[in-house]
Specification:
about 45% helix; 6-stranded mixed beta sheet; about 140 residues; globular; alpha/beta; 6 helices
């Protein structure tokens, strides 16, 4: 619960073996603040692989975030690396209304709205396998 709890969840993603799949609701730095820089640096150093899907809320909130936050943060967020790939999925197909990370045998949910912040990690091979399959279906619909 709270930003500290979610920071721990985000840190746990550095344990990914293979690839992390995710649904991006809003810019992660909006939730975890400057800790984002540290996590992102570790992610890049480890050459971790990630694919994520984002929809209209992410696009809208990123524009707002740019107006309010540091240029350095946005420069970091906009860097493209061979091992991070993103696709847009319209809200008419999938309304992404919270953050989800899927990796190893973990499905990690993050939710924040109007000051309420919480997360849940589920460690279960069967659940992670099905969520990975669902991600692939939607991934193929993205642009």
């Amino acid at each position: 619960r709270g930003k500290e709890g979610v920071r721990q969840q985000v840190w746990n993603t550095l344990r990914v073996k293979g690839e992390l799949l995710g649904y991006s609701y809003r810019p992660l730095a909006e939730l975890i603040g400057d800790y984002y820089f540290y996590w992102y640096e570790e992610w890049i150093k480890g050459k971790k692989k990630m694919r994520d899907l984002y929809s209209d809320e992410y696009v809208r909130s990123k524009k707002e975030f740019i107006q309010v936050k540091k240029k350095q943060l946005m420069d970091t967020m906009d860097k493209k690396f061979d091992f991070i790939e993103s696709r847009y999925i319209p809200s008419s197909i999938l309304d992404i209304n919270h953050q989800v990370d899927i990796y190893n045998d973990v499905v990690s949910y993050y939710c924040w709205h109007e000051g309420e912040v919480f997360g849940v990690e589920i460690y279960n091979e069967k659940i992670a396998k099905m969520q990975k399959q669902l991600f692939e279906i939607v991934w193929n619909m993205g642009k």
